[in-house]
């Protein structure tokens, strides 16, 4: 969910109307573009946009353009026309095919450059690079002072030490390799080009370096100032469509600021590329049937109504009749992939709060999952025995699961990118979570009796997800007279109430006192464990009272219970 | 008479037998009760106007160390004349004092008192002393012995003679004086009447026993009265976890609306968590800071889903038969097999759509544990529960999308007012956000819903509309429970769990 930071007055200016300064009222308006006010202070407005697929909205111009339609200020397709050819030709080196194959350029002349504009454009450029451009890997944008450049341009490659130029914000010339090592952008994005033996470079006919895509512009040519009148925009990247889309969006933004757009021609050495004159502004035509619209929205809209709503969403409607609508989709609407994307806009323009809600007329029988019935019975029995239910995390760590429990690490399902030190894996047994809870309550009155029915996860090669979710019931009693006997009485109570017979087998388990621990078996299958907690474990958890516990697999219980219950 | 307790009865009887008035100490002796018992009885009998209490201040006298020495060895002057008699009735002073073993402190005292009492004559000029008289034991000596014998005496209880002699001993500074309180109880008129009616002491017990019941001997006992308002020990009932109870309630409501519960695994294949949901593989939300990836093994097994995997691949790349343009990138089937901790409940819905048990029409829900890499603080958890579901059936439209949210808002969130906003999910279009207004809380976002994109349903072989919906149960519970820290949902605070009321 990208957040954009814009100038409140700038937005009002572009809209041509005053906006309410009240957050709630403003949210009502911004909801048309799925936006929400995150901050409104003096002239600063931060808007959180829900749609990650609408890069056209990531700038004031885009928001203004969209809102103008919904607010009935300016409807229909916005007439974006290229004024002519800029005369710029770009020649692409074949070696870039495996590195960063695509480039698109445009020139915008007569822009009213101001501080606000520079700030806006740079923010949009950043946002596009980061989100739409996937941290510049997919696309990256460069802006240049057009009057300082001599076309034609060469989008070429160079060896890391072959070329030198002064990167933006620096004062001395560096080689490409040095830029990667010393310049902040080189450090951040260098990984994109490092795998290759040669790196992309953009130069003009005088061999002046415009930039080192996707890393950094030249300080001489790649900087916009208040004196800039004409801007060259360039986008390079790994997917042609996205490169063209990024160029369209940023070019239109500058056009919305009073500039005239001029095209450039790209000469590719590799075949099969159709759109070589950029920017790509031509609209796409989509034919949608009124039946389709009705199927999704459920509303009977007249053709004229549909046309009006579509125009408020800034679509063009060259043709409409009873059964079909022809929609012209502006190029900056990169999110439109299927008619449903257009149909949603009809609903938004209509106003969702005018649509009568209807409870689905479907006859269905409800029910909780079969697993839920036994689970709830178990919980009832435990509560009836006086135990407090607790709820703990399934994520844990090996210290909690093994070291503190006095046993060896048996292997657990770990995550590769943990965010918190104490949550690095999924627990394979439940008792440690309960012990941890007890250790946080030594100042609270005893006796303490707790239980949980929760999931543990173990590795299982045979499953498609290589793991198995195991539901367990675990329970601990802790107080000055806690004993195995007490716990066994409880285990009896639980299992016999569920109609389950079980056997105990003497085993050794280092979490429990030797000679006071048993394996619970149901129908000759291992089902759980019961015992007095080992004093070493109590010490590890800084507990001062004896404790007894059991842990049993609910799945085993399910298998053993009468079909009526499970 | 059964209103009187055992110690009250015993005290009354003792007073009656003592003639109506006696000291507390004597009553303690007679009744065998503890001092505190008699005092308690006195207080309660006093409240019932059966007994009056008297307190008299008295003087207690006893010997100090010097006095004890005189008592043991005799008054110094007595010692002197005894020695003098032995020496023949007349002798030099030093000889006599020596004979009497009087040290230099006691000699002047002895000589002085001999002279005062007229027992001997001291001649300073010659340094000689002559016996005059040797009377038998005098009153002061009698008192001295008495004090020595008794340890202490009450001045007011002494007869006239020793009382006057006390002043003498006091003047000699061999007496210690203490204040003493005499406590006495006296029957009132009502007390006399009660006592005269005849009292019987009935044994009091504090606990009925099986024996008393069975033998019928309970009839001969009084069960001691309790202070029923006295505080007692705290007990904690076994209880379900408040958050789980709340989720149970929500489940019940959903079942009542005709929803069936679905379940799915915690560790998911990317295929179900993302790809099937039309999230492109290079979508920012699929990066390491938005999902937990499994360390080992890194990939799972997709062989059961060959056909669907292919459908999804084509859909992502070029839209396939869905009528969509597709994402236009190269789909990696290997990436689809990547194992993650599910970051949303929607994969459970996808599995349900694929399952043989799917019913059309059908309404489903799932409350699943989900995981996202996040630091845990007041408003974020890294492991949390999500409530999501689907409605599958012919003829489902935007109307029903809103209808479901409205019902949930009114019945589950108990909202006072609702509002729909355009929303966004990668797998639905159109999408709606639900905002609900609750008195005292203002407007809050409670959930969202959307119609699954054809790019999601068609590859799965579903040809009817599917509505997906989700509710923010955590926020709901926090509002209900009046807590503003999300960590309380998984609290380790046993006190909080114990004290949390069930309503």
Inertia-based shape of chain A: elongated
For the sheet with most strands of chain A, the description reads: 10 strands, mixed
Helix content of chain A: 25-40%
CATH class of the largest domain in chain B: Alpha Beta
Explain the layout of strands and helices.
The complex is a heterodimer of chains A (566) and B (503).
Chain A: E1 3-7, H1 8-15, H2 23-30, E2 35-41, E3 44-49, H3 60-70, E4 82-92, E5 102-109, H4 115-132, E6 139-145, E7 153-158, E8 164-165, E9 174-175, H5 176-182, H6 184-189, E10 199-203, E11 209-212, E12 216-217, E13 230-237, H7 240-255, E14 260-267, E15 277-278, E16 284-289, H8 290-297, H9 303-312, E17 316-320, E18 324-329, H10 339-350, H11 370-384, E19 388-389, E20 395-396, H12 398-401, E21 413-414, E22 425-426, H13 431-439, E23 448-459, E24 467-478, H14 484-497, E25 503-506, E26 512-522, E27 525-533, H15 535-540, E28 547-553, H16 554-560
Parallel strand pairs in A: 4-7, 4-14, 19-23
Antiparallel strand pairs in A: 1-3, 2-3, 5-13, 5-14, 6-13, 7-10, 8-9, 10-11, 11-12, 14-15, 16-18, 17-18, 20-22, 21-22, 23-24, 24-28, 25-26, 26-27, 27-28
Helix pairs in contact in A: 1-3, 4-7, 8-10, 9-10
Chain B: H1 6-17, E1 21-23, H2 24-31, H3 35-47, E2 51-63, H4 65-73, H5 76-86, E3 90-92, H6 93-99, H7 106-117, E4 120-123, E5 128-131, H8 139-150, E6 152-154, H9 160-171, E7 175-187, H10 189-196, E8 204-205, H11 210-215, E9 222-223, H12 242-256, E10 260-261, E11 267-269, H13 270-273, H14 306-318, H15 333-336, E12 339-341, H16 346-354, E13 362-371, E14 383-392, H17 398-411, E15 417-422, E16 428-438, E17 442-452, H18 454-457, E18 466-471, H19 473-481, H20 494-499
Parallel strand pairs in B: 8-9, 10-13
Antiparallel strand pairs in B: 1-7, 2-6, 2-7, 3-5, 4-5, 11-12, 13-14, 14-18, 15-16, 16-17, 17-18
Helix pairs in contact in B: 1-3, 4-8, 5-7, 8-9
